[in-house]
Write a structure and sequence with these properties.
Length: about 260
């Protein structure tokens, strides 16, 4: 089994505040891993370390075989990233946004044209390419953002709350595409607050107060705690763990180091 992400005791401190504490998990290539947890739990901070854009305070992680601390550029070249803000230019058309991101990924000439054509077909954007992004619905903007993130054929697709505020039909279409990409071998790391999305992941990590308090397949996790639904499971975790945020104290920040 080839690992896409191997994360061992990852820690991130901002001053005396520990945003991520001793996070350890592994996922194989081609898997969909979902991060769930309340706001401020540390999901984005963990994702940013794994993308090679934030240096961990301690711990080790390899992504696609590259070390996050010493080889961040190798990681960045091989991942596609999409955040809930979509990072599109509203006053440009879909085609112009794709052209801009092709440039960001250093795609030129024939290669750029080929990759743009590929993602337009793949995501079903054919009839939208000349439309201004500002005139698109949230669901279509989301699909354009996904197309931009796929332009350079990444091996790992990182999605930080990609469907926040998007209607249910668009969410379903988006997830159908995500599952197809995973079937073709792409690894997906996604943070979400939606339990139906969490349920369709191969692996789930539940993050709370900076710690990964549970990890496994959705079925395993439910069985382990004897819960019928993921909603019940996550409410159980939150109630079990909830107390004053331990990360605000020096003791909390040093606990896993
Ligand atoms: N650069 C920073 N400096 C100081 N604190 C930070 C910084 N980045 C994040 N934090 C803090 O670390 C904690 C974890 O934040 P993070 O954004 O990783 O959480 P999250 O689980 O992604 O939340 P959300 O679901 O709201 O996106 C938060 O309390 C946040 O305020």
């Amino acid at each position: 089994m080839s690992l896409a992400i191997d994360c061992q005791g990852l820690i991130k401190r901002f001053g005396t505040y520990t945003a991520v504490q001793d996070v350890t998990f592994q996922i194989p290539q081609g898997a969909i891993m979902g991060f769930v947890g309340p706001n401020g739990a540390g999901k984005t901070t963990t994702i940013r370390m794994l993308c090679g854009v934030l240096v961990p305070t301690d711990g080790k992680a390899t992504v696609l075989g590259f070390d996050v601390k010493s080889q961040p550029e190798d990681i960045k070249q091989r991942i596609g990233y999409m955040s809930q803000k979509f990072s599109l230019y509203d006053d440009l058309t879909v085609a112009e946004n794709l052209a801009f991101y092709a440039g960001v990924y250093n795609l030129r000439g024939k290669e750029a044209a080929l990759q743009k054509k590929r993602v337009v077909e793949r995501i079903g954007l054919g009839e939208r390419t000349s439309q201004l992004v500002s005139s698109l619905s949230g669901g279509w903007k989301q699909r354009v953002a996904l197309a931009c993130a796929l332009l350079h054929s990444p091996q790992l697709l990182v999605l930080d709350e990609p469907t926040a505020g998007v209607d249910p039909v668009s969410r379903r279409i988006f997830w159908d595409i995500i599952h197809q990409l995973a079937e073709e071998g792409m690894t997906i790391l996604v943070s979400t607050h939606y339990m139906d999305e969490a349920a369709s992941c191969d692996y789930l990590g539940f993050v709370f107060y900076g710690r990964l308090i549970a990890f496994g397949s959705p079925e395993e996790m439910k069985q382990r705690e004897g819960k019928e639904t993921l909603d019940d499971l996550f409410i159980y975790y939150v109630e079990r763990e909830a107390s004053e945020d331990p990360r605000n104290t020096k003791a909390g920040s040093g606990g896993a180091g």
